[in-house]
Specification:
CATH architecture of the largest domain: 3-Layer(aba) Sandwich
Shape: globular
Number of helices: 13
Bound molecules: flavin-adenine dinucleotide, uridine-5'-diphosphate
CATH topology of the largest domain: Rossmann fold
Distance between the termini: 6 Å
Radius of gyration: 22 Å
Structural class: alpha/beta
Largest sheet: 7 strands, mixed
Helix content: 25-40%
Mean pLDDT: 92
Length: 407
């Protein structure tokens, strides 16, 4: 008998497993249909020995000290400020658009005041910023919108920016100074030994059993548990009763090149000509030294694993109907990007999971993230009934037992 069955071993599921086990002494079975923990943040050393992110680049950034301190219990950090260039008009220029972007693109030498006037002249003022188009044209005008945002957004979402909520392109600011960082959060860092190692430490407790290669539906009627935490897609949980909630997917093309460096920046965005949206070169993110280099191309697509909820009014309305069903299930707690249909970053999911834990444990939010029982133990709690994924996990495989051993 487990106190909790947790579906999904990404940030939502793993934070809750760790908190319930180490904060409240609960017994937890956490399962994931994938062959590894970490959800979309999973990383591993590829055949060349380079640490890569299987599901695209994951850069940790947050303004929340709580979230940063909480995760710091399971990882050391490597300071890292993310930078992105965009390939536009045959040039590589900084994105977010800043003073250098404008000067390079138009062959100018404006200062900060002059670039403010420049934006003031070209912008199309909108009274309300309802859509993703409104946000960009209101800030930088139509020409820059078309060069940097329209094509990228249509590729990524298969929708025109005018059909997407303002919040999507509002993630990318406009600057009049020379700050070329992609994020300006107070804490920006990468887990020093990788995300997977961090997750393994979170889940390393005698009260947590981990079951991989396992869809929860295969076991839900076989095991006894008190309550469920569900971090998969909310529409799938309810057998698509009201129809499918749209999610956007990606195909990742991983490549390793026999050169030390492949491109000029950690990420290069391709808003216009190519079918892919961006190329990431992992060594910039991880700080690894290696004579070869690994990159990933992202090709947006409709079918495949659901990666992005699509923020627009009709989807919010459909999600609202599923949320009503979810709220009526007092035995199941829906947490995470797919289960709450929110375009959330990792830190927001950690915060969401800590809040849910606080409610379950009757604690204030501040108290919820404090580890009350030893988190790092040497236990044999990880079980992998089929195999440990592709065998490329970045730590040695744990003991293999059968499902019978945990129920
Ligand atoms: P997930 O990581 O998706 O975990 C859910 C887990 O549930 C999955 O492992 C899935 O296999 C499992 N599951 C689903 N259904 C079942 C089932 N039926 N049975 C068993 N298991 C099931 N955030 C940042 O902060 N910075 C970034 O740079 C960043 N980059 C990103 C790049 C890409 C390409 C993508 C797609 C996302 C990025 N994110 C980034 C967002 C980040 O991935 C998410 O915020 C975070 O991983 C969400 O965690 P989660 O636990 O909610 O979901
Ligand atoms: N975007 C764009 N051009 C860019 C970068 C971003 O049009 O060069 C838009 C696009 O719609 C994208 C959104 O802004 O989906 C958010 O970008 P972000 O880099 O935050 O996307 P993520 O890393 O979540 O995929």
């Amino acid at each position: 008998m487990f106190d909790y069955l947790i579906v999904g071993a990404g940030f939502a599921g793993s934070v809750l497993a760790e908190r319930l086990a180490n904060g409240s002494g609960k017994s937890v079975l956490i399962c994931d249909k994938r062959p590894h923990v970490g959800g979309n943040a999973y990383d591993f050393y590829n055949d060349a020995g380079i640490l890569i992110h299987k599901y695209g680049p994951h850069i940790f950034h947050t303004n929340s000290r709580d979230v940063f301190d909480y995760l710091s219990q399971f990882t050391d950090w490597r300071e890292y400020q993310h930078r992105v260039l965009a390939s536009v008009d045959g040039m590589l220029v900084p994105i977010p658009i800043n003073l250098d972007t404008i000067n390079k693109l138009y062959g100018l030498s404006l200062n900060s005041h002059e670039v403010k006037d420049f934006f003031e002249k070209v912008r199309e003022k909108r009274d309300t910023l309802r859509t993703s188009e409104d946000v960009v044209v209101n800030a930088v005008g139509r020409e820059l919108y078309e060069k940097f945002f329209r094509g990228y957004t249509r590729k990524q979402w298969d929708l025109d920016p005018s059909e997407l909520d303002a919040s999507v392109t509002a993630r990318v600011p406009t600057r009049t100074n020379r700050d070329s960082r992609y994020f300006t959060d107070h804490y920006q860092a990468m887990p020093k030994q990788g995300y997977t190692r961090m997750f393994e430490r979170m889940l390393d407790s005698p009260r947590i059993k981990v079951l991989l290669n396992c869809d929860y539906r295969e076991i839900v009627d076989e095991i006894e548990y008190g309550e469920m935490i569900y971090s998969g897609p909310v529409d799938a949980f309810f057998d698509y009763r009201y129809g499918k909630l749209p999610y956007r997917s990606l195909e990742f093309r991983h490549e390793t090149h026999d050169v030390e460096w492949f491109q000029e920046a950690p990420v290069v965005n391709f808003p216009n000509e190519q079918a892919f949206t961006r190329i990431t070169e992992f060594k910039y993110l991880t700080g690894q030294s290696h004579r070869k280099t690994s990159v990933v191309y992202e090709f947006p697509q409709a079918e495949g694993d659901p990666y992005y909820p699509i923020p627009r009014p009709e989807n919010a309305e459909l999600y609202g109907r599923y949320k009503t069903l979810a709220d009526a299930r007092s035995d199941v707690h829906f947490v995470g990007r797919l289960a709450t249909y929110k375009y959330y970053n990792m830190d927001q999911i950690v915060a969401q999971a800590l809040t849910v834990y606080g409610k379950l444990a009757g604690l204030k939010r501040k108290e919820a993230s404090v580890v009350a029982m030893p988190a790092r133990t040497s236990s044999k709690s990880l079980i992998y009934p089929i195999s440990i994924g592709n065998g490329k996990g970045n730590s040695s495989p744990p003991e293999i037992t059968s499902l019978d051993a945990v129920s």
